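Researcher: Please predict.
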Amino acid sequence: MKRILLIMLFINVCVIAQTQRFIYEMQFKMDSAKEGHEKINFALDINPKDVKFYEYDYLKADSINKVNGNYAHHYGGWFPSVKRDRNSFKNQNYELIGHDMFSFPSEDKISWNLTKETKTFGEYTLQKATANFGGRIWTAWFNKEINISEGPYKFRGLPGLIFQLEDSKSNYIFTLVKNSNLKETYNTVGFLETFYGTKPLEISEKIRIRKKQEFYDDPLQDMRNEYKDNMKGEMNVMGTKITSKEQFNDLNKKVQEMLRKTNNPIELNKAMKY
């Protein structure tokens, strides 16, 4: 069993002035038909007034930008970020579609079924709970001694902090691996409230679907336009030297095929129908 690096935050867990940052490892299958998982680390910031969940690599890029005093270093996350008020199921979603960041609200009430089953995880005793959410069946293991009703992504509402979370087909597996206490709320304006200085475009769920379909229809649109403006008539796209429109069309089809195979979002009921 992986050793989790949890410090003694529990003594200070109710200190309102602090931010509790929990690091979760997410194992996931981009292509549900294939064996094996990819891995991404996430930060769950539990602030005095709100909760934020985002890919950890955003912090790495943001640290460089803050040192340099600009937004020159970019990281574009594959997984959507979320922000919500404390003790709320109302989320503000941030999703990168193509090269643009979009934002839209959602209310994501989760009804948990608590069981009496427990297990040991390192030095902690965890209790089992299950729920249906986003078109998947989930099992969560939480510690009721830690009075934080939060967990990874939109999963919250249990009487304790979620340590482990997994769907019934093991497409997504979250594990708490580390935590820290921050003296003040971390400023995420550089990559969440704005995407490196550009405010995300506010849209509805209906427009989100339309934007994702538009991206699928022509995923290389920006590069295609750049190719048209290139006087030499050639450019390198995804490791392929493009010298004709026909090559662009062939590459476009390959990207579309990849998008179809990796159409396995955490909220399966929101998967695109390409």
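Model: The chain has a mean pLDDT of 89.
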